[in-house]
## 1
Amino acid sequence: MISWGRQRQLVFVGSIGLAIALAVGIPAFLSREGSKCDNKVKDGNERGVDCGGSCRFVCASDVALPVLQFVRLVPLERGLIGAVAYSENRNTDAGVRKAAYLFKFYDDAQLLVMERRGTAYIPPGKAFAVFEGRIPVGSRTPTRAVFEWSGPLRFEKLSPEPALAIRNELFEAGEISRLTAELRNDTLASFEGIKVTALLFDETGNVFAAGSKYVPELSAKKEAPLSFTWPAVLPFPARIEMLYTVSGQ
């Protein structure tokens, strides 16, 4: 028979053990089960409100904004221009599916001529280009473009872009200048929502022409033809860069 003193000792030790178990077990349970990710409350293992931990979205404090390398105006044809913003996302495992942006166009007097808004896909861990084409200039010709993200960038966990290859680039100058290439998928998976942007650089490293093409789907072990045209006699580019993003992966 256990003495009264021994009973008190066992109860005391058991209470301590239960307190330790609760202190460890409850946070672990909440960390695993308590992250709602859409209730506007920081719970579970979230690092912020509805972000971090097991949530899809990444907290703003844990990501770096894309680095804007340059913005260029490019002529297209009479009365029309294009604009390209070249950026780099250095977050290797996070991107933005729909990022709102704004191009502003100014004339020689630094007066605002027009604006153009849109949304872009920001891929994880790579350079990308935002291209706006066929912008009517009207009676005032823009000479400078400014680019900015027009809303908060909500980064989420994204897989790295698939390794696609761009082959057989061929540029031909003429009354209609043309750039052709092939986009090749050597992987065993199919991908959707592929956007390819072509940039033509002169000897000083400036972009003088740009264009974009959309490939709805690219099956495994297949290729898709790419063709970019400009209704003008363009000089032969010193360098060609073709960037792709896969928003539907």
Note: The chain has a mean pLDDT of 88.
## 2
Amino acid sequence: MKKSLLTLIFGSALFLAACGGDDKEQSTGGETAAPNGEKIVMQSCTTCHGGKLQGSGAPALDKLGAKYSEQEILDIIINGTDKGMPPSLIKGADAEAAAKYLAGLK
């Protein structure tokens, strides 16, 4: 019984961690602050692209800005690629913030 309960709790924690959430930080005025691109990338991309974005089964992203513009990166985030990148893993303002952050990595 204890082992199955522990497995259920651990599995639930992994599921919730993978799903993420609405990580928009709140400003003091109650308005939503701009999304943090680095934080979004580290939460959403490191599983496939490596903890330091050095590549790990998926291409390295640590110098992506030297190869692609911010708009090209945003297009990849939104539409995915035929080489395995699924579309829309990050959406809206979070996708824009992630693209801006990645474009700065050179």
Note: The two ends are 52 Å apart (CA to CA).
## 3
Amino acid sequence: MVRYTLARLLRAIGTLWLAVTLVFVGLRLSGDPAAALLGPEANPEAVEALRRAWGLDRPLPLQYATYLSNLVHGDFGRSLRDRRPATEVVHERLPVTARLAAVSLALAVAIGVPAGVLAAFRHGRIADRLVMAGALLGQGLPNFVLGLLLILLFAFHLRWLPSGGQQGASSMILPALTLSTYGVASLARFTRSAVLEVIHQDYLRTAYAKGLPTGRVLVDHVGRNAALTLVTVLGLQLSVAIAGAVVTETVFAWPGMGRLLAQATEQRDFPVVQYGVFVIVLSVVAVNFVVDLLYGLIDPRIRSAV
């Protein structure tokens, strides 16, 4: 298990390094933040002075080496707009995004898993077809399209819910529904496939033959044997909820980290974007690392293959 854990840890570190490197290079190819901050009519001398003050006039390899050195020491720089540490700017928005991601994941589990189980036990019937049709629609419909449709229906036509912002608990309903839709669809499909694979096994027929109640069969036999697939999908959905919040928060003007990143990217606020993306990638890598460890605990064959 130690060798398996170390292998997954090295892969996680490599993924994190590759992500921060791509963001660093991509941002510097997107434009000059000094010119964006001062505007198109700014004096060239003022722009150049600002670039020197931020170290943007140095060669790119030297900027990259300085960035990695500061990153190792936990220094992500100061926001070019707010003049505050980038960590402080991002951490202010992080709890808002975390709440939205947690609620959307809870909705995905609460709706997707029972729907997948229902579809498996009603295989080939109307309930199965309806669940699969809904899953196909949920996976194919982009978040921003679904979000706009929900705003038009529930905010403008019915006037039941606010169209955006953070105005109380009701403001979270539409963003959470939008962000959870893909998760509901994925969990329903994968749960259905996992349960269908299990319910045709001989040991399940034996359990029913012994007179075990359906609830116990579902928990002790179906649930345990489908756990590997569900752990995989849950890990992926948590990653999607964290990373997908950027689009959803922009559509609903939700004051979280995703919207902050969209604004910082437009304003060329390099330190905020770099740290925000670092937090997102670190969250996704951490989730995948935990999922990999759970793989090894649930199925010993996986860790013995390393």
Note: The chain is about 80% helix and 0% strand.
